[in-house]
Amino acid sequence: MVPVPSTFVDGDSPHERAGLTDDDPLAGLAQWLADARVDREVEARTRRRWLEQQAREGSSMAGLLLDLAERAAPVTIRTRAGAVVTGVVVALGADFAVLRSAHRRDTLVPASAIATVRGEPGDPAPFGDRAVTMLVSITDALVELAAERPLVMASVQGEEVRGELSSSGRDVVTVTLASATRDRVHIAADALDHLALLNR
Q1: What residues make up the domain containing 152?
Q2: How many structural domains does the chain have?
Q3: Distance from the CA of 150 to the CA of which of 18, 29, 132, 192 falls in 20 to 30 A?
Q4: Residue 2 forms part of a structural domain
């Protein structure tokens, strides 16, 4: 054990600390403590970066969309066909997301059609590292919606089909056009880029 010299000089006030010199063990102790604090801060930053990296590597699109939905922050989704859908994520299904625009128009976007997701500038990046288990598929949702026969705009490979969602099955969606002849367009469900509800 290193002997600790007196830090007070005869005649000095006991409240006055004597100056430490380079050869004073207390000076070495003070430096050692300062170095230890720096080391702990570096370790903490390193660990935080590592945890963030692990979270990003464990992220999924569904987890990312769930994080964004909880923030209720506007996002922009670009589909594989090049369409742009902007709004707040208000619902998630097993294989789709629902975005609500500023005009309160809801748009269903199949997960398979999503190419990119972008948040607002300056928003903190979501991790999306949580497991997401949703039971309702886009097929189920469209069957439910078809019972209401809403007006929709279905986008398929850049083509827009507008009319009444008259029926939906296991792998086909039928839209009745708003025309005198009431023609019907049958859309392969897996070809759907996105579907906007126009009057719901």
Answers
A1: 138-197
A2: 3
A3: 132
A4: no
